[in-house]
Amino acid sequence: MSKTILVTGASKGIGAAIALQLAKDGFDIWLNYRSDQEGAEKVAAEIEEQGRKCTLLKFDVADEAAVEAILDPMLEEEVPYGLVNNAGFTRDGLMMMMSNDDWQNVLNVHMTGFFNVTKPVVTKMLRKRTGRIVNIASTSGQTGVAGQTNYSAAKSGLIGATRSLALEVAKRNILVNAVAPGFIETEMLSKLPMEHITPTIPMKRVGTPEEVAGVVSFLCSEQATYITGQTISVNGGIHT
User: Fold this and answer.
1) Is the pTM of this model over 0.85?
2) Which residues are part of the catalytic machinery?
């Protein structure tokens, strides 16, 4: 019987690359997205071309009621082997000029969204006594970045949550880790002065979504059975 992995925010970018890689690894995918129907359907088609099943789950991870309405019936039928918490976005700006909405919305998606999705999934995993949870953090949550107080706070919090949850569920063979990408070739880079940033990266280039997906693939594999509570950086050496 095939194993299933739920990937949030998987209609494009890093999330889409993760979903496609995990499908190549032999997993069926529950693909969550908030609004990009076209993108989600495109990724689903590519997954199905590989001979894997893909179920589209449309909900905003920050909306508890929406998560429950879609996810609870799914969990009654099947418990996914893995969960990748990838959904996220940025609202950059100096804290002195940051709106309450930009602060709260970023924390809601990254932190409350993590809680809303992970709690029901890990509760079911405990009964199965197996599972993998991978949280997509960021170098911003490890080092701090000017203009990203909200995003840095959210991603730093996600790293802390990863460590604590790993301790809570390790005895049930549920492994919880984080992956912290640096500057990755996605839409998030479109507004950044990359001509100034790229020279500061020791490898002198940005990363690809597929390079992040490769680490997630490893953490979901049988080669990572003694790794939990860790944050693995994928950043070209910009932070060590």
Assistant:
1) yes
2) 151
